[in-house]
Amino acid sequence: VTRTAALVPAAGRGERLGPGAPKALRELGGAPLLVHAVRALAAATAVDLVVVAAPAGSTAEVAALLAGEPAAPRPAAPVRVVAGGETRQASVAAALAAVDDDVDVVLVHDAARPLAPSALADAVVAAVRAGHPAVVPGLPVVDTVKRVDGTGRVLATVPRADLRAVQTPQGFRADVLRRAHAAAAASPGAPATDDAGLVEALGLPVHVVPGHEEALKVTRPLDLVLAAALLARRAGAGPA
Ligand code: CTP
Ligand code: MG
Asked: How far is the CA of 130 from the centre of ligand 1 (A)?
């Protein structure tokens, strides 16, 4: 039976990365970002199924890309591909709709975080199974963060010790994520940039576990340079 599914929103355009293919299909060390992300999730011990929300019009291309993946090192989890939506939230909802009823824990992981380790996915699932309805990986913030108004005037310095930069994979009890997305779809408001935000809006607790430096999000061109360096460092370290 499949019990844990990983959803991969991959339907964004990648406008901040600059002109070119949709971000999830841009190359890093010889493979598209999406392929790196799916490989790591499919190899996680806890993951039984991966559902990718592909850019509209690229579902066949994405399915073909992922069908060629070798099922090593363990029998990798099966991968389904659905069409994504206009917003990240809509893409996650589309992937969630393709998850079977017997799945009780769901991860949501950005295709734009290609190097998040399998062990991070396993740790997030373990925290959900230990009793947290919603779990996010987070890292301390290194910059001093200030709240500003529209003119650039500083209103306040936010105490840094209270802040976490939150990553994916985020993990949820399946019923909680379904409820959160149903509530969000029914309310106006701007679409959320992460799924835990929708759970917070329900008033349910969200728990932070330690994040990982390599789970960085590729957003701007410099991030791709850093990701390539991390990948080269891994290759240099040889097989684990
Ligand atoms: N995403 C998605 N569907 C959308 C928008 C975003 O599935 N309509 C996905 C992206 O593919 C990415 C993740 O959500 O894996 C995080 O979004 P972001 O980093 O903002 O990626 P893009 O939207 O592609 O980038 P940009 O905002 O610079 O255009
Ligand atoms: Mg975006």
From this structure: 30
